[in-house]
Queue: 2 jobs
Job 1
Amino acid sequence: MKNKTIVSLLLTATVAVSSLGGIGCGAKVKDDANTVQVSVFNGGWGLDWLYAAEREFEKIYPDVDIVIDPQDLLGQIANQIKSGPSVNPVDLYFASEDVNSLLLMGSNTLAGYNMVFEPLDEVYDYVVNDNKTVREKCSDSLLDAVTFETEENGETVSHEYIMHFGNGAAGIIYNADKFQELNITVPRTTDELYDVTCAQISEKFSNDALTKAAFTESIRTAYSQYMFNVWWTQYEGADNVKNFFNGIYYKDGIKRYGNKIFEQKGRLYALEAYEKMIGPDYKNAHTNINSMTYMQAQQVLMNGTCLMMVNGNWLENEMKIRTDSGSSANIKMMSTPIISKIIEKTPSIPDDETLRAVVSYVDGEGSLPDNVTEKDVETIRAARDVKYNNYAGGTFIPAYSNAKENAKRFLKYLCSAEFAQIFFDKTGGNFIEFNEDITDMTAASGFMKSVYETQGKTTAPYQYRYKMAGLGGMLVFPGTVNIPSWFASKNAEDRKTPKQIYDRALEMGTEEYFNTVLKTAGLI
């Protein structure tokens, strides 16, 4: 057993070092306080923005060396950080994978450290432009995603531990030229999306239905799941979705904890809207969504074979970087249609036709229908404000870094208005989420402009930010692992309906299951 343990530790160390690419091997990099070793995920935005930041920062601070190591592999970071300072020399991560569990575990992540990431309060306190701190320029949703509690001197305190420089906004992207050519209007509700928009597309594509459809998708990547999160949050409200992940429900106006959370109906309604997008019975999706890669699915949108796809604001730039074909397509992001079931919560909005008119009114178009109350308008306004932004990953400093002060100095530079413009220009028009003070909009394409015109301020809560899901393993639907595959399976016998998934969750989400989640998460 002892020999096996030694071998295991050696293998872990070897994997951790080898996965660091240029930092872990090859040319020797100084591991000192003035050398900030940066590991960055090389994704859809490319890395020109970071290399430009490195050059400008080193002009200001010539005594500091920023060493950038691009990474294409995912799933390595947790093991790297857990390997500790003797193995892992990285001082600053720009990650694209879930790291919330490392913070939720607190002192259990790495021996000798209360929290394995360095607190970034100093950076969030940094005054940028308009005499506002970084924290003051952040939305409540963003701050909630990066703030974690820890114990210090016997007291519970909170710190910000992560930053998000790339606004990873996602939604339904559509081929605007094809919409115009086919005289199709952008839908405002889910009923309008399917009963009008998809129906029109199906009719106009009727002679070639096997290869042309309303939606393209790759089930391997399943970006379409983003819409479930948005529609659920639209119906329930962000606070009630957070309540779900904290095990909270209300009965008779009294706050309670327990497995009754699985009765929350917004989850069922969001599933019903989601199924219509990719379920074969509805014929709204390309027939090859089970076999296409995400790049193939994106190309289908670009060439107009399919007119819509759930994707992110990185899509246009990613297609330009990885393929020249179709990169100039006129694509736009729409405001996510409001879940039509929301009229159950708005008594003065009796039907979807009225709901569509209210959505237009909230968007600043048209007049408010008669007899619709201000309270119901505000419910729709709040739903319209929900966006999706995946807060897995982000930018953070390992607590054991020996260059943490200069890493924080670099982060402060990345919060500046000067860098915001660099980031905007180098990424084809992407804003830093907390710094939108761009003076030169030249780099923004029509697509990127559509993103900022349609994205709200309330982010659908990210489940792994909360201990019950992030540590306890609680599923939104107990008994169900891969909803997209169940919806999209070519074999009808393998499919599950939203009601079957919801009922299965009620069956499996017992009090015993709930308590097991609490114990695993360390909450009881």
Note: The first strand starts at residue 35 and ends at 41.
Job 2
Amino acid sequence: RATRYHGYFFPLMTHIATTRILKAVNVLIVVLLATALGATYWYAWRPLPQRSGSVAAPVAAAVSVSFDSLGEPHIRAASQQDALIVQGYVTAQDRLWQMDSLRRYASGTLAEVLGPPAVDTDRELRRLRLRRLAEAAYVRFSAADRAALAAYTLGVNEFIATHRDNLPIEFTLLGYQPRPWSVIDSLLVGLYMFRDLTTTWRDEIVKRAMLTDGDAGKVNFLFAERSGNEPAPGSNAWAIAGSHTASGKPLLSNDMHLQYSLPGIWYMAHLQAPGLDVDGVTLPGLPGVVVGHNQHIAWGITNLQFDVQDLYLEKLDDRTGRYLYQGKIEQARAEREIIEVKGARPIEVATWVTRHGPLFIVDGQEHIALRWTAAEPGLFQFPILDIDRAENWQQFTTALSRWVGPGSNFLYADTAGNIGYHAAGMLPKRRGYSGDLPVDGSSGNFDWDGFIPFDQLPSAFNPASGIIASANQNPFPPDYPYPVNGNFAPPYRVLRIREMLAAHNGWRAADMLGVQGDIYSSFSKFLAAQVVAAVDKRGAHNVSLDPAVALLRAWNGRMDKDLGAPFLMALVYQHVRSSVAD
């Protein structure tokens, strides 16, 4: 009996112990799940943008904000100042982490929150002196421009101040609080875009190095000054007159292709106040609408691609900063910056600045100064709100005349039936050189001779064809009176757009999506035909090439992501360029 008793007792005890362990494990799982859900709510769900209710804000009168199905805020205010305050608030609500990242990138303060991996990026941006440029530009702004920036800044800071314990999760993960926003930060965001779309100086270094040991003809083929050097995707925009549309009114379409980011760089917004009713895309951190339409006009932008950066070889003494210019000794200005680095010691960056710009050391020995239109004293302005309020072509182009950069192609249409185009931006007038290579800075022979007058920049108004299109191609005619150099796109894309638009009339707004989504590449189709012809000419049969040649022979030129031919042609094109470079 004892044996039977113990035989039953031990399994019973084992069962009880197992049950308790399972209960404990289940309780632990529930606790962990509840903790995870609570953390998700607190750090990820709770900071999500507010889409209903009311908030207190530093505005003079009540402002309404409604969000449509795309999440675009429609802001209706009793004054333009209040509209801009609320624009700052709702943009920060949706994009504060992006805004903080943009100003940190532009000012060279990423390492402060990201640590040593960001030091090299910070060092280069400190040499570009963007914060100093923004501060110098702001003091020259008109009272109206300063007031607009201040209103937007007030709205951003209202959001930050009232959400210190409820910020986007990125701030929590990196363990820091964003500093208050400033008007200088807004200008930094603008300068970030300026730099992103106009940085060409590294191409000059590469081209010079290739010319030293290479064939000049091949190098100039790779770095063409006027015809472009990459048949790659880019921005596009077009305007068609009412003679081509079903409604008899103009249509304008625009698709701006920039670097990939998540979220994308653009933020949609609609601003409505007395004297202002504009809808379109904004740049997070800047007041106003960059591209869009109001009740009278619509406009689009593509990058002009004109070269606005030059490199100057300076004869400078590293120890003293004294350098030679036109036979005289001048003193470079010494600027020192401290880069704060998370988890490491601060780093000092010392830069000499000559009359041409900040110095970069190339190959450990040469002193090369960078001159850039964004750094020209007194040039940088803020015409975005003037564009937003324009009611006709004259007012629109008057606002564009204040556009410093990045150099842009502006396309235009209005309710009166007009279409137009105007290049805009401060483009340097060069004397005796094109700006594609570093030049001697000591002689003074290669200094800029001012800037190309606005009324001499390429433009068009109601052309006879009724079609205006831009796809980053070179808009400057062969007989243009000033040297032209830039990273222009080849004409293939714009020719395709014009071909499609001219194919028939009766266009409707919805039809524009078909043109935007067109994936036919005339360049790639041409190159594929050349490859097939070359194989046929050789005549020799190569079993390993047969599948690829058959693929190209049957290809219709459409860059479909599910086809093998587009991928193959991308490889062929890169091989052609590499072969030329070799």
Note: DSSP finds 17 helices and 20 strands in the chain.
